């Protein structure tokens, strides 16, 4: 019976996925657990494993195409089976189900006396296994079941919430029928590809399917096949890498290791770009083994003319024009879309002010002598911004089409750079929190951002944004407003410059602040008044504790 394969929801914010690569082609045999494609989501590129078995009859989107969640991307079934009805809307599905029901008694009669293994297809059932929801996931915890045994399931129903190493995600059934079996209780963990549920016709006895699990006939054969393939791959790759060291202990992702093995690349020669030097897919695909041998030749060829033509005073340098291109990630697409909408929709204007930070530097040193956590200058700026916003509600506002919303609460977004782009977690009700509280919260957000564990609730709901590039030595800069906020503050570095105090030129510590405003809600005088208040708070930081 032919079955459709749909684009899964691989993250909580995913709305579509891009087919990065197909690992199977039409006509190939596909087993449950086989890697059939790589899907680029808004968070990462993940492996997509098949939960069904059969022949790959149809592939919809091409590599590089974007596909909405739950859209059909492939069809699996028996070789030569007509699948067009499924693409037209699944009209043939009920007929197939009836045929399966008619055939199932005969199958049961023959299978029961002989004691042979029974497949899920013969019973008309679909086995749901723990999916691989992230590239580093080895097991998942069932956070909650959304259905109970006996409930009717549709193919697009989220039957359970699974907690992975990155976030809590939904598991879609991709099957229709009655929920016959739940294998893992809520709160318990299951390894990837372990059976967590079975869906099929009401009243079907799934005991034969469960009894097959300990015997492990088919999986064992599959494991042996994989081992034999690995041995063959090693034997083929051995001549090419005989002079290199064993790369089994090199830190690399499973996908990168597989690609390297297929291409005969020794991972000892590849430089990793991920955390801790870990090698990922792009490192292997961008690796050129011939570079080592070509470099001496190029040097020799360029030095030869220099030796022959002694009259030439300037050495001749021959360069090569080259470049690389990569597909735009889902996160980068979102950043481009949102910032483009903000810049070309909201009329921006900018105001810059210089702040004497001598008192703030002295106050920070005294605070850190007694504070439970280290307080940074950025934490002091966030606190001062929150207090200033309470005094200038027009800056703490947003454009809503035919209305302007004046927020009475202060939620300060803190721009943070991550590997693939930019995230803006929110310090909520910052005006009521202490400097130590703000510091601890921002540090926690920073750790979550690096580990890619920030949830949508962490970055939603800001009323104002602070962006700080002072740690990079940037004197001043302008930022694009983080819609729907009405303004954003750009914080530069503290610079030691000569200043005039008491009629004398003395060394001073000055920081420049630039306020980007949406002119639809913030006028020039309003923004200037806000900066004056902010400047007063930073130059007399004792007022932050009042």
Automatic annotation (TrEMBL):
Alphabetic keyword roster: Acyltransferase, Lipoyl, Transferase
Biased composition (Low complexity): 288-306
Family: Belongs to the 2-oxoacid dehydrogenase family.
Cell membrane keyword on record: no
Residues annotated as domain Lipoyl-binding: 2-77, 125-200
Alphabetized PROSITE patterns for the sequence: BIOTINYL_LIPOYL (PS50968), LIPOYL (PS00189), PSBD (PS51826)
Chain positions covered by the region annotation Disordered: 206-253, 283-311
Domain Peripheral subunit-binding (PSBD) as annotated: residue spans: 251-288
Lineage: Bacteria, Pseudomonadati, Bacteroidota, Sphingobacteriia, Sphingobacteriales
Enzyme Commission number, as recorded: 2.3.1.-
Protein name, as recorded: Dihydrolipoamide acetyltransferase component of pyruvate dehydrogenase complex
Cofactor: (R)-lipoate
EC top class, as a word: transferase
Pfam families membership: 2-oxoacid_dh, Biotin_lipoyl, E3_binding
Matching PANTHER family: DIHYDROLIPOAMIDE ACETYL/SUCCINYL-TRANSFERASE-RELATED, DIHYDROLIPOYLLYSINE-RESIDUE ACETYLTRANSFERASE COMPONENT OF PYRUVATE DEHYDROGENASE COMPLEX, MITOCHONDRIAL-RELATED
Chain intervals with Basic and acidic residues compositional bias: 222-235
């Amino acid at each position: 019976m032919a079955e459709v394969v749909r684009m899964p929801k691989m993250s909580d914010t995913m709305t579509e996925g891009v087919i990065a690569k197909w690992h199977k082609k039409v006509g190939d045999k596909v087993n449950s657990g086989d890697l059939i494609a790589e899907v680029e989501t808004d968070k990462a590129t993940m492996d997509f494993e098949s939960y069904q078995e059969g022949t790959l009859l149809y592939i919809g989107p091409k590599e590089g195409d974007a596909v909405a969640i739950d859209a059909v991307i492939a069809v699996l079934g028996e070789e030569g089976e007509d699948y067009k009805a499924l693409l037209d809307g699944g009209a043939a599905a009920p007929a197939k189900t009836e045929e399966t029901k008619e055939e199932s008694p005969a199958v049961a009669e023959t299978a029961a006396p002989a004691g042979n293994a029974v497949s899920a297809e013969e019973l008309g059932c679909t086995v749901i296994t723990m999916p691989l929801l992230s590239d580093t996931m080895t097991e998942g915890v069932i956070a909650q079941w959304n259905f109970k045994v006996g409930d009717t399931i549709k193919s697009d129903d989220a039957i359970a919430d699974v907690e992975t190493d990155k976030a809590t995600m939904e598991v879609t059934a991709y099957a229709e029928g009655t929920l016959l079996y739940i294998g893992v209780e809520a709160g318990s963990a299951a390894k990837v590809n372990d059976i967590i549920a079975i869906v099929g016709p009401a009243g079907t006895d799934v005991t034969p399917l469960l009894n097959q699990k300990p015997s492990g006939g088919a999986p064992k054969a599959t494991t042996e096949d994989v081992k034999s393939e690995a041995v063959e791959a090693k034997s083929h790759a051995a001549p090419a890498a005989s002079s290199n060291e064993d790369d089994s202990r090199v830190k690399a992702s499973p996908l990168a290791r597989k690609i390297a093995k297929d291409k005969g690349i020794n991972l000892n020669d590849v430089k990793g770009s991920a955390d801790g030097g870990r090698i990922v897919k792009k490192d292997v695909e961008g690796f050129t083994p011939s570079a080592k041998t070509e470099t001496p030749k190029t040097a020799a060829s360029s030095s030869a003319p220099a030796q022959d033509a002694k009259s030439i005073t300037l050495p001749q340098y021959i360069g090569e024009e080259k470049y690389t291109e990569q597909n735009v990630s889902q996160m980068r697409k979102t950043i481009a879309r949102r910032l483009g909408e903000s810049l070309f929709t909201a009329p921006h204007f900018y105001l810059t002010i210089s702040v004497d930070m001598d008192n703030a530097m002295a106050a920070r040193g005294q605070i850190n002598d007694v504070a439970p956590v280290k307080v940074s200058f950025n934490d002091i700026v966030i606190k001062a911004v929150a207090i200033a916003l309470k005094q200038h509600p027009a800056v703490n506002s947003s454009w809503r089409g035919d209305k302007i919303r004046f927020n009475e609460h202060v939620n300060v977004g803190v721009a943070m750079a991550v590997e693939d782009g930019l995230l803006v977690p929110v310090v909520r009700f910052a005006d009521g929190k202490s400097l130590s509280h703000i510091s601890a919260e921002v540090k926690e957000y920073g750790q979550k951002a690096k580990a890619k564990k920030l949830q949508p609730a962490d970055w939603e709901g800001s009323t104002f944004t602070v962006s700080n590039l002072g740690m990079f030595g940037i004197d001043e800069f302008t930022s694009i407003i983080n819609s729907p906020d009405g303004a954003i503050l750009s914080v530069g570095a503290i610079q030691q410059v000569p200043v005039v105090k008491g009629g004398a030129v003395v060394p001073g510590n000055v920081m420049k602040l630039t306020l980007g405003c949406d002119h639809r809600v913030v006028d020039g005088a309003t923004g200037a008044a806000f900066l004056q208040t902010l400047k007063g708070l930073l130059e007399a930081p004792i007022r932050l504790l009042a």
